[in-house]
Amino acid sequence: INSFLDSVDVGDLIVKGDLEAYSCKLAGLDKKLSRSLEEEVAAGSASPTSLSKSPVGPLHESGSRKTLVYLILTLNHIYPDYDFSLLRAHHFKKEEGVAAIEETIDAHLVEASKVWDTTPGFGEEPLLDCLWSSIDEAIALKECDVYSYKSDMESDPFGEKGSVWSFNYFFYNRQ
Fold first, then answer.
1. Residues 36/86, Cβ–Cβ less than 8 Å
2. Distance between CA 142 and CA 136 in Å, rounded?
3. Which PANTHER family does the record cross-reference, listed alphabetically (predicted)?
4. How far is CA 157 from the centre of its chain?
5. What domains lie within the chain, and their CATH numbers?
6. Mean local confidence (pLDDT), 56-80
7. pLDDT at residue 135, rounded to an integer
8. C-alpha distances in Å from residue 129, one per residue of 45, 52, 73, 175
9. Which of 19, 96, 116, 120 is the most buried (most CB within 10 A)?
10. Phi, psi of 107 (to 5 degrees)
């Protein structure tokens, strides 16, 4: 799926996609970012409102802070030329559920699906069926929380010249 999504010419535009799975375990620089966020919360530099309400959950809870750190670290790993370590909870949104996100992604990939169907070696199973079954096999979709990244389109890879649209969804299974 990744080799296909790397660069799909759909006529008027090129779709570039990436699908990655990570196991979350803090090590090295990852621990440093986690400690930095912990210190920020402990020092009370965040407002009480942001501590009690955030897209990842109450930031006074360790599990919520850990989720935020994992989201930031994932972006740092996928895009090593950019530094996302200054992102905070308000840069993310917790989505309503997997089904709504599936619809959104399916709509974005409808043209790529047509190319998949006509590409030798790929078209045995529809792209979207293959995509969702692969994701489900890796992380058990029904057990996931879904987050999206709200890009500022200026200081990250999604604001590159010529980019028409982009999306980043994180399917997070705590197990």
1. no
2. 8
3. REPRESSOR OF RNA POLYMERASE III TRANSCRIPTION MAF1, REPRESSOR OF RNA POLYMERASE III TRANSCRIPTION MAF1 HOMOLOG
4. 13
5. 1-173 (3.40.1000.50)
6. 86
7. 95
8. 45, 38, 29, 24
9. 116
10. -65, -40
